[in-house]
Amino acid sequence: MSAGGDLFDKTAERHLREPWDELRLAEGRAFALQRAGATFGIWIFIASEVLFFGALFLLYTAMRLEHAADFAAAARETNIVYGTLNTALLLTSGLCAAIASQASEREGLRRLTLWCLALTAGLGLAFMVVKGLEYREDIERHLVPGAGFALKERATQLFFGFYWLSTAIHAIHLSIGIGLVLRLIWKEWRAPGFLFESPQVEVAMLYWGFVDMIWIVLYPMLYLDGRSG
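Above: the chain sequence. Below: its structure as tokens.
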């Protein structure tokens, strides 16, 4: 395939996808357009997710205003050690993701990119392990809404209903992010140079940053409320 004497080499053909591989453009121009399109696409997806989580947070705010004392009492029952540890893990993973995204733009930084991607996935997995330990403790303490719920105030079940729902949805999103990062590592292992010829690193790291931001909102809502006094 040619355009004005510019031929797509095998590397370009491997990493350019529809419709960019069909455009009669020079290789560099086609890659730039593909990267811009992929980045725009992930921002549209993130905007739709913000609408979903925004509705969830609005629901929490309405319930919190109606049952302020009960929600504060329920929040004091969450394990702030686990919550804070997971916040540190996720923020550190976000830093690693940002470094990986920047390093992937320079082919000489392949090792740094791979190490940062591995740390990002590893810290995400550590978050899931800690969250699993926290869930086990919550179950043992009968903090699952329903029969046998440990707290007497009725509205505390609303809080823990939100707690289980929001953290489970966040965990699903994080699991997807871990899968995306592990896929990038695998693809680079199979085809060296992939990370530097595809916009997928930037797209995956933007998604990871979104997951980080959701947790930054959840942390004070679920763990800090009622503990200021």
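The longest strand covers residues 2-3.
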